[in-house]
Amino acid sequence: MSRPLLSALRRPLPHLSRPNPLSLRQPQISAIRHASTTPSTPRRFVSSTLFIAGGVLLIAYYYDSRSLLHEHVVMPLVRLGLDPEQGHKLAVRLLSLDKWARPRDIGVEDAGLQTELLGQKITNPVGIAAGFDKDADAIDGLFDLGFGYVEVGSVTPEPQSGNPKPRFFRLEEDAAAINRYGFNSLGHGHTLAKLRARLVAFAQSHPSLFPSPLPLNPLPPSGIPRSLRPGQLLAVNLGKNKVSAAESNEDYIKGVKLLGPYADVIVINVSSPNTPGLRALQGKEILKNLLSDVVNERNNLKNNDGLPKIAVKVASDLSEDELADVAYAVRSSGVEGVIVSNTTVRREELSLTSTKQNEVGGLSGKPLFPYALDSIKTLRPLLPPSIPLIGCGGVSTGEDALKMARAGASLVQLYTSFGYRGVGTPRLIKDEITSSLKTSQSRWLGEVGKDYSNGQMGWDENRLKRESENVRKEAESLGDLLRHISEKESMADLIGRAEAALGRKSSSAEQTQGDGARDNLAGSATGQVQGEDAAQGLVESGAGADVQRIQQPDSQVEQARLIDSAPSTTRPASSIQDALTSTPESIDLTPRVVVVEHPPIPEPRVEQGEDEWVQSVRSGQRRLV
Ligand SMILES: Cc1cc2nc3c(=O)[nH]c(=O)nc-3n(C[C@H](O)[C@H](O)[C@H](O)COP(=O)(O)O)c2cc1C
Description:
Number of domains: 2
Number of strands: 15
Strand content: 5-15%
Distance between the termini: 123 Å
CATH topology of the largest domain: TIM Barrel
CATH class of the largest domain: Alpha Beta
Shape: elongated
CATH architecture of the largest domain: Alpha-Beta Barrel
Structural class: alpha/beta
Helix content: 40-55%
Bound molecules: flavin mononucleotide
Strand order of the largest sheet: 3-4-7-8-9-10-12-13
Radius of gyration: 39 Å
């Protein structure tokens, strides 16, 4: 490029050239400031007032859990920006902040909302279900939102991380969620520390209720709920570690022992679908044993004043018969309450639209409601009214709560609707219940069990007795029939086996023993001693090598002896009766069975009056089949 051209390019263009901006900026700005401040002091006052008022309003909105800010601004933003598990964590963290920093229910409780549960009066019937505050971090935050009942957990004895992420899914189109957390828990130790810290803080502000000096680990004072709040209850929900033996009760027993003294209610969770084998604990006898063990452990707690009540939480996926088994286990174990229900593994019947519907795990929220309600309706008449039900599953409105109450639930719990609507949910639902109760001039307690005409929530002990007597009779006659059939079948089978053995043996030199067996079998046709003889024949009819020889006792109806020389899973027939009642499969006809030497075969006895058929059978000419 030529030198003149270069210098021309470096030279600023005349219309773009500017004076040094720094040299001009100060006077310009000061001029502007001067010009604007002096005459606008009132405007500035207005704007700062507006700013402060807006801040106060925002804070007021933030603190008041009812404000639309939470449901219509905060929650959509959370859903937009955070995945479900992150959102869940944030909510727990918010509610575990210091009192001054978290939202609360500032509404007034209507007297009509009062309910009774497990011998305690509660100011309102809306509770938070297990799974939201798994590690007891936000107990007071939840109570401050106006829940009458707070259930923490499920907590497992040892800390465990649960299933791999992602494990929590929103099904927004269905107002539902699916989770497969798999009992992620910080363990009993963490929950215990939280419960004790709460108690110590309470003791410091209420020193007169505790011994002085305050013990290191004080126990809750008698006469007040373990929630440490009048008219509200605290429940601890117990789960099992994944590595614990499926059939073991130990994890629950540990939880009762350690955490029982700090809870109004201990919930035995046997219904989470995300821990392998857990739901099998809902079977009749297994559940009865588990619950009886838990109740015994609770009764052994030292703090006799105000022992926690025990409730069991079941699934809504149980059939009517399975719910009847649960009712039986509850009645016969001394458990005081039942929560119906946990999440469901159903999918197809729910007519879901969300693309996440096929995620593995337990489904909660609106689609669960009819199933939970049905389970309540099935279970309620099978339990005496003294055993309350807690309804849970898809409750999202006051009307849902009232439907559960009429079906017999003394209290309802929710989780998923709280996840969607936010911190104002308990207040919204309580207000809806109140307005509905006012319209019908009723109270919550007046609604509980209203669907049943007998005033006992369908419970009729005599009917149950009559039904169980009928079932017993049916079982008895069925048992007789089965015994009869199995006697006949096993006899035919015994004979078949003995004959097969005899057939094999006939090729050997042990002909006599086989005949003895046949004799016995033939002898069995005479009726009276047939079973015993047949068993003896079977036991004696060994074949093959290693045959042992023992002397046949004189009587043909003598006790059979099975010499089991090798260790075996075969059950030795210790008596004829034993051999008879064994299933044929459990008697092994391999060479371990001995051959018995018989005394000479007696001449066939011909009794006076016996017909020809009997005689032919007795003499061995005819075979009994
Ligand atoms: C994310 C999540 C975690 C849960 N974890 C537990 C749990 O640890 N223990 C338990 O007993 N139930 C647990 N549940 C089940 C709830 O307590 C409740 O029974 C179920 O969600 C039905 O109520 P809902 O439809 O109001 O959510 C969980 C539910 C959800 C959504």
